[in-house]
């Protein structure tokens, strides 16, 4: 049973060492790294024997410990120790009533220490102790009821706390248990349980030969190539601040931590940008861009119309793709007519020649004054014919001569001649009169040299008045001959 407990404690210490070594990736200076520590402490013992009443006694011991070098918050070491003291017990039902056992101890084991900050160091210990003991009764005489060896190999477990007072001195507090494989510490056999005792102690430790870490970066001064590293900065194995991208600027200063290898950087760790266009020199294809000019992803001035002239120089910013341009970014105009070559349909126009939008000379066009075209003439029957007559009066000749002149000039024109009357008399009589008057007009025009085939003649009678036949004025307007152009 005692061996199982012992080996369980050893396993816990070993696992803790491995766990914390992996957890603390950043190296941490541990005050006990590579040190030899001397300790003196004393305290009380409390027996867990067959005597049941509460009784305390004392014990003192000295220890030597060596802690392995470490760069984490965990420290692993070895301990040897020796000591002497007493174990006491009382029980009114027992004979003798009281016992006190002399103890002499020598042992060793492994110790695991964890750093909680800069001054507090909890630890656990597991080991084995060779114990010499001699139980005595309340009269001071040695008890010897049974025949047994008064020395044995016991197992120990301890939990404690070290508080750093100076660089080398600590105050210690601890509590532990020592487990006996037998039931002889009180010279009394009772049941199947084995004897044991608890120890509570306090003391001081002094460390020798330990290395210092002046800048507290986790690398001892003897190995630290950068001894003045600022506090809490991650360092490499040489004690120098980490520089993941190897640009010469430590990570805690580096504003551009992923700079490609061998790229030149400024004091902030960012790639140089000589022309300040926002594109680092190692990418910049156009390293001498003027200040304030907008650039593309390669550091070259923008050229929106892709004519080879950057926008900040381009006087013609929207040149069509593929059009040749001059040094100002404007389409070429070889003949200087202000129409660019790619639009110029007459590329060799003489200088100062006026051209149209296609670049061709403008043709001079003679402007002919437009003469109004006669489309309709209305002859009043009252002025052109006698009452109830279809014979033309001389008063109609002037108007008809003007119309004849137009008809002779417009040789392809076609005409409709309509006769109209008022509603006096019968419909048949008026229709016949209106047709005769229309034919009289056509006959006059034909006499002036106009082909009769160009005329259509109709007698409309009184079916299409233009005024009220109930009045004299209206009837006068309705008596008319209309000459109408039909093409």
Task: State the gist of this model.
The protein is of the alpha+beta class. Helix content is 14%, strand content 28%.
Number of strand segments: 12
Radius of gyration: 65 Å
Overall geometry comes to rod-shaped
SSE order, as H and E? Answer: HEEEEEEEEEHHEHEHE
From the helix content, strand content and strand pairing, which structural class follows? alpha+beta
Count of individual helical segments: 5
- Total individual domains: 3
Q: In whole angstroms, how far apart are the ends?
A: 133 Å
In CATH, the topology of the largest domain is named Porin
Mean pLDDT over the full residue set: 86
Features:
single chain; 487 residues; alpha+beta; Porin; 60s Ribosomal Protein L30, Chain: A; 3 domains; eight-stranded antiparallel β-barrel; four-stranded mixed β-sheet; 5 helices
Draw up the topology in text:
Layout (H helix, E strand, L loop, with lengths): L1 H22 L12 E13 L7 E12 L6 E17 L7 E17 L5 E18 L13 E14 L4 E11 L16 E13 L167 E5 H4 L12 H13 L5 E6 L6 H21 L7 E5 L12 H7 L1 E6 L2
Parallel strand pairs: 10-11
Antiparallel strand pairs: 1-2, 1-8, 2-3, 3-4, 4-5, 5-6, 6-7, 7-8, 9-12, 10-12
């Amino acid at each position: 049973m005692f061996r199982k407990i012992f080996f369980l404690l050893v396993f816990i210490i070993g696992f803790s060492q491995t766990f914390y070594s992996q957890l603390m990736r950043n190296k941490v200076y541990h005050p006990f790294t590579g040190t030899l520590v001397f300790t003196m402490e004393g305290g009380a013992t409390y027996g867990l024997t067959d005597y049941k009443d509460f009784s305390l006694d004392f014990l003192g011991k000295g220890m030597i410990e060596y802690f392995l070098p470490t760069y984490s918050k965990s420290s692993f070491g070895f301990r040897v120790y020796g000591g002497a003291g007493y174990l006491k017990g009382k029980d009114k039902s027992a004979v003798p009533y009281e016992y006190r056992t002399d103890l002499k101890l020598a042992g060793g084991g492994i110790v695991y220490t964890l750093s909680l900050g800069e001054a507090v160091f909890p630890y656990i210990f597991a080991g084995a102790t060779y114990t010499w003991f001699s139980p005595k009764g309340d009269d001071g005489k040695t008890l010897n009821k049974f025949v047994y060896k008064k020395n044995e190999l016991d197992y120990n477990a301890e939990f404690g706390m070290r508080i750093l007072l100076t660089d080398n001195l600590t105050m210690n507090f601890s509590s532990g248990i020592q487990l006996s494989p037998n039931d002889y510490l009180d010279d009394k056999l009772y049941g199947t349980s084995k004897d044991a005792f608890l120890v509570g102690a306090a003391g001081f430790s002094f460390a020798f030969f330990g290395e210092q870490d002046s800048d507290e970066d986790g690398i001892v001064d003897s190995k630290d190539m950068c001894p003045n590293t600022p506090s809490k900065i991650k360092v490499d194995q040489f004690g120098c601040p980490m520089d993941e991208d190897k640009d010469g600027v430590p990570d805690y200063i580096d504003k551009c931590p992923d700079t490609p290898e061998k790229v030149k950087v400024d004091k902030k760790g960012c790639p140089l940008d000589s022309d300040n266009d926002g594109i680092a020199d190692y990418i910049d294809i156009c390293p001498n861009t003027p200040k304030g000019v907008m650039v593309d992803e390669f550091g070259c001035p923008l050229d929106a119309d892709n004519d080879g002239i950057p926008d900040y120089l381009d006087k013609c910013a929207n040149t069509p793709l593929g059009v040749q341009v001059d040094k100002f970014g404007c389409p070429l105009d070889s003949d200087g007519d202000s129409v660019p070559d790619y639009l110029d349909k007459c590329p060799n126009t003489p200088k100062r020649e006026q051209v149209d939008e296609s670049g061709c000379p403008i043709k001079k066009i003679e402007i002919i004054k437009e003469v109004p075209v006669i489309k309709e003439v209305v002859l009043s029957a009252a002025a052109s014919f006698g009452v109830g007559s279809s014979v033309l009066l001389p008063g109609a000749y002037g108007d008809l001569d003007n119309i004849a002149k137009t008809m002779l000039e417009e040789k392809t024109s076609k005409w409709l001649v309509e006769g109209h009357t008022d509603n006096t008399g019968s419909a048949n009589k008026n229709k016949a009169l209106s047709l005769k008057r229309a034919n009289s007009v056509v006959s006059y025009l034909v006499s002036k040299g106009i082909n009769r085939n160009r005329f259509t003649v109709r007698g409309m009678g009184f079916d299409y008045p233009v005024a009220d036949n109930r009045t004299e004025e209206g009837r006068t307007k309705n008596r008319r001959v209309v000459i109408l152009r039909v093409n």
